[in-house]
Amino acid sequence: MLDKYFIYFIIIYMVLINSIALFLFMRDKSLARRGKRRIAEKTLFLSALLGGGLGAVLGMHLFSHKTKKAAFQLGLPLIAIINILVMMLLLKELH
């Protein structure tokens, strides 16, 4: 039974962290447009590294934010791929 709950935990965590990453990109773009203090790039990358790679990539493209920076163009898709591979390995180990 623990395995089933662990899978639920992972799914809930991934939905939350990807939503947070997406929100951070949306918020940073909004702050940029208004000339306000911005969210640190380290924070944007950290949200991706903690499992929010897909949300970060989606946010980058939906809001056309950080799309010209090479670190984001290359780094975020790579992090998203690693996130997916880690998730696949975790879920495979449970079965």
Would you kindly provide a written description of the structure presented here, covering whatever features stand out?
With 95 residues, the protein is an all-alpha fold. Helices cover 83% and strands 0% of the residues. The chain has one domain. The protein has helices at residues 2-33, 41-62, 70-94. The longest helix is centred in the N-terminal third of the chain and has 32 residues, at 2-33.
Category by helix and strand content: mainly alpha
User: How far apart are the termini?
Assistant: 12 Å
Helix content: over 70%
Instruction: Count the DSSP helices.
Output: 3
Structure summary, number of beta strands: 0
Quick one: biggest sheet? none
Secondary-structure map with pairings?
Elements: H1 2-33, H2 41-62, H3 70-94
Helix pairs in contact: 1-2, 2-3
Question: How would you describe this structure in keywords?
Answer:
3 helices, 0% strand, 83% helix, 95 residues, mainly alpha
Short note summarizing the structure:
With about 100 residues, this protein is mainly alpha-helical. The chain has helices spanning about 1-35, 40-60, 70-95. The chain has one domain (about 1-95).
